[in-house]
Amino acid sequence: MLSPTSGLPKETAKRTELRKRSFNLNAALYDRARPSYPEELFEDLVRLTWTVPLSASGKRDCPQQRRILEIGPGTGQATLPLARRGFAILGLELGRRMAELARRKLREFPDVEIRNIAFEDWTPEPEAFDIVLAATAFHWIPGRVAWPRCAKVMKPGGHLALLWDFPDLPDTPVYRELRAVYHELMPQREDPRPPAARVERQEKKIVSSGRFGPVTVRCYPWQREYSTDEYIAQLRTQSDHAILTPQCRSRLFCAIRRVIDRHGGRIIRPVVAALFLAPKRGV
Prior knowledge:
This protein is 40% helix and 22% strand. The protein is built from eleven helices and seven strands. It has helices at residues 12-22, 27-33, 39-49, 79-83, 96-105, 143-153, 173-185, 195-208, 228-236, 239-242, 246-262, and strands spanning 67-71, 88-92, 112-115, 129-135, 154-167, 216-227, 266-279.
C-alpha cells in the first residue's frame, strides 16, 4: 500500500507551498463546493468597524466609502457579500484561475478589483485601507510578513478582520467511523481541534503580534447537510486532501463514500464560523 505522503516533499515549507497552491487546481469545484459565512457575521463586521470621525467643527463627517484589502479572496466567498454592502475592495489572489472566476462573479461591482498576485509580492499602499480582511486564508502567510504588512497598509483606526469556519464534528456513529478511516488511510492528519481551542489560539496570535488589539470575537454556529457526492466534492477542495497521490486519494474517498452511504447517503457537518476583529494599535 502506498504511503499517503509518497511523492511529496519532506520539507514542511515545500509541502505547505504545495497546499497553498492546490486551491487553484480546480477553481470551479472550489467555488461550487466551498460555503460562505453566515450573513449575521457580515452584518456584525460592518457594525463593529463602522466609525465616523469628528470634523474640525466637532460634527460628524459624512462617511466615505470604506476600502477593504482582502488577502486570498479565492472565488469571492466573502468578497461578494461585502461588495453588496457597498465596500470598495482590492483582492490579492495567488491562483490565476481563482482570480479569473472571482472577477467574473464580481464584474457588476466597479469598486472591486481582483489582482492575480500573492500578498507577499504586492507593493504595499501605506495607510490606504480601513479594513484588512482574510477569510480562511491568513494562516498561509508567515507571521513575520503578515502582521507588519497588514499594519502598514491600514489607516489609523483601521481594523484587521479574520474569518474562519471551524468544523465542530460530533461524537456520532458516522463521524466515529470517518475518524477511523482517516486514522487508517491518512494517519498523518490530526483530528480537528475543538472550535473553542482554535478560537483561543487565534486570539492569542493576534494579541502577541503587538500590532493589533484588543480583539473582539464573535462566533456563529451553523451546519450544512451534504449528500455523499457533495461531501466528497468539498473534501476535494481541502488542501491536505488535494496533494495526496491519486491512488491514496481515491482509496480514501471510496472508504468515506462507503461510510456515508451506509448511514443513509446524507451527512450533516456542524461548523462554528468565527469573526476576529482587532483595531490597529497606535505607534
